Amino acid sequence: HHFQTQLIQAEAGGVDFDIPIILIHAQDHLMTAMTLKDLAREIVELRKDMNSQS
Prior knowledge:
Oligomer: single chain
Largest sheet: none
Helix content: over 70%
């Protein structure tokens, strides 16, 4: 995370990268959110299965 922050600051300061660093950072956040959403759905389904078996 610290390294990403340094890259974002460098880009904001005028350093040019082939791919916008802020885009990579945004994709990291999106993928984390999507993973957590999938995990939450799995947990809900597991709880439903457990409750129906008891």
